[in-house]
Amino acid sequence: MNNMTILVVDDDPVIRRMLEKRLEKEGYEVLIAEDGYQARKILPQQHIDVVLTDLMMPGSIGGIEVLDIAKNLNPNIEVILITAHSSIDTAVEAMKKGAADYLEKPINFDELFLRLEKIANVNSIMRNAMDLSQAMDTTESAASETIQNLEIKTAELQNQIDMLETILRDEETSIYERIDKAIDLLTKQKIT
């Protein structure tokens, strides 16, 4: 089961339906937009991992504009453009703007699923890296606290040693009194 949500944006109802059925069959959650205007409404309202959009659609919101809208809302949304052979140069330009990839029509579903798998793998690696970073931060914080506690304990022990040394070196006091004072200090301070 794939856990990515894909927004399919295409003005051709046959292509939309075909993409929807094939993607759902592979276990993806699929949302549909008939054009860029509908995509613009859906994108801010839903969690989307991947936008699969036709490059050329009627109106002023085509695939490039859908790419811009998606990336402005969330730079982590991946966009794959569907393009006719004649607009490959435009698709390459779109990749420079942040598109993850492009597919030529007619759509080769093996290629599409490979690209989606690649995106899922990269997302998984990024999540693992973030988890590792958080774990490292937690470990570093715990280590820092432990070191600080050890430094405090070391200072306390050094203070006790200094006090014992002062008591034991006091030649004006008899050896028995010094020993009694040292024992009292040790039992009161409980050196650990």
Write the layout of secondary structure elements.
Elements: E1 5-9, H1 13-25, E2 29-33, H2 36-42, E3 50-54, H3 63-73, E4 78-83, H4 88-96, E5 101-104, H5 109-169, H6 175-189
Parallel strand pairs: 1-2, 1-3, 3-4, 4-5
What would you report as the Rg, rounded to the nearest angstrom? 34 Å
Instruction: Characterize the overall form.
Output: rod-shaped
Strand order of the largest sheet: 2-1-3-4-5
Mean pLDDT: 89
CATH class placement of the largest domain: Alpha Beta
Domain module tally:
2
> What is the first-to-last residue Cα distance?
56 Å
CATH topology of the largest domain: Rossmann fold
Number of strands: 5
Unreliable residue runs = none
Helix count?
6
Determine the fraction of residues in helical runs and give it as a percent range. 55-70%
Give a quick rundown of the structure.
60% of the residues lie in helices and 13% in strands. The chain has 192 residues and is α/β, with parallel strands linked by helices. It has 2 domains: 5-107, Rossmann fold (3-Layer(aba) Sandwich), CATH 3.40.50; 145-189, no CATH class.
Give an overview of the whole structure.
A five-stranded parallel sheet has the order 2-1-3-4-5, sandwiched between helices. The model has no long low-confidence stretch (mean pLDDT 89). Helix 1 (13-25) links the parallel strand 1 and strand 2 (29-33). The chain has two domains: 5-107, Response regulator (Rossmann fold, 3-Layer(aba) Sandwich); 145-189, no CATH class. It is 60% helix and 13% strand. The relative contact order is 0.09. It starts with a strand and ends with a helix. It is of the alpha/beta class and 192 residues long.
